[in-house]
């Protein structure tokens, strides 16, 4: 009878080890599967972010090109207006600007507190 009890205990212990091994294998497989799923999700998110970045760059480039074109157009219009000035008016404009930047002319005092 004692031998039967020991045999039963050994059999139960063996079954427990086998179940533990099977559960450990399932857990390892599940972890591997979760790792693969995580890597796939990371890849999808990277692709999404790269596409979003490309779109943002395209929008920014288009905006910069539009602003640059407006600046060039404005500069061309100003240049055109200046080319239509007669010599006397042009000389007056230049003199007025020079008076503001030449020393001793206009307000060239140091801004000193004290």
Structure overview:
The protein has 114 residues and is an all-alpha fold. The chain has a domain of 76 residues. The chain is built from 2 helices and no strands. It is rod-shaped and about 130 Å long. It starts with a helix and ends in a 13-residue tail after the last helix.
Largest β-sheet summary: none
- Approximate helicity band: over 70%
Order of secondary-structure elements:
HH
> Average pLDDT across residues?
90
Q: Which geometry do the CA atoms define? A: rod-shaped
Class computed from helices, strands and strand pairing? mainly alpha
| Number of discrete helical segments | 2
* Multimeric state: single chain
Total beta strands: 0
Alpha carbon gap, first and last residue: 112 Å
Strand content: under 5%
Q: State the low-pLDDT regions, or none.
A: none
> What is the CA-based Rg, rounded?
42 Å
Write the layout of secondary structure elements.
Layout: H1 2-83, H2 87-101
Quick overview of this protein structure:
With 114 residues, the protein is mostly helical. The protein is built from two helices and no strands.
List keywords for this structure.
114 residues, mainly alpha, 2 helices
